Amino acid sequence: MSVETAGHRSVRIPRLMRLVESPAQAVDELAGLGRDSSFLIVHAGPASPTGYGASLARVAVGAGLKVCEAIAVSNTDAWAQAVSAAIAKQRPEYVVGVGGGRVVDVAKVAAAQAGIDFVSVPTQASSDGICSPVAVMVDESEHPRSIAARIPVAVIVDMAVMSSAPEITWRAGLGDLVSNLSAIKDWRRAHKLTGEPYDDFACLVSEAAALSVIDDGVSLADPLFREKLVRGLILSGIAMEMAGSSRPASGAEHLISHALDTLLDSPRPHGLQVAFGTIAADLLRGDDPTRLVGYFRSVGLPVCPADLGFDIDTLTLAIRHGPEQRPGRSTILDEVGEPQLAALAAAYASL
Ligand SMILES: [Zn+2]
Question: pLDDT confidence of 153, banded at 50, 70, 90?
Fold first, then answer.
């Protein structure tokens, strides 16, 4: 959240953002936060596909840092309570969340509830949660809900472990980032129609982050492009911090995705669903998505319902149920009726 002063405002950003290539380098960065500090490293233990959190803890202990560990394998309230209990027992100066989006989010939430500084060490680039003040938690039925947390004080990204993750995680991260283009259109629309407060700088940062990865001829396998994507996802988190909410990175395309999560037996990765939702929302707005569609096809992001394995009727349902996913978030979905849905089907046919 930004802080107003006379004439200016200040925005909290992490004091450190570092891309590294090994656990030893990541530990050096942790040590830079305070060699005498204590760290609670939260990771998925044996359930982790990379074992990176356990490696990091081992290397940190070897380097003489004060480290304890807590296990969290998912982003449920029960795991958050387990991390909270470890925080209460160990009283660390930093909580370090190491893993995929779920582990980072559950550690972020527990750290925020305890008022302890959080360090994000993501092992996948699959969402913009790696540096955001927002976390996604799920209930027993895996239904997600966004909750306010605090932006990390440091983000340490080991590109070597990130690169060992399946390519679909990179594609999902790319989808989550480019979906900002839809989110900011909804924010501008809501500001105009309802007077909802709007933040030019948060929009500027969100849009710049998304546009930074949209280029002809990019390859998801290119290490330099991957670095650009990671930086874009971090910047997207900072846009959310500026706005004090997920508004600059979550609009109609996210509501469609949340509705799909409830409608599909096996939902597709979040980043793919919101990318798909970005095209759907553009079509509902009457905007021409030709350039974005060409880009999506070049990087393997979904464009049409069939690309995600369902039909237009499922999308129609998701659009109808979208607004109820987050009451109060005004988006283009609020204007959709039968004529827009009929036009949508025709528009897909011409893509
Ligand atoms: Zn998202």
Answer: very high
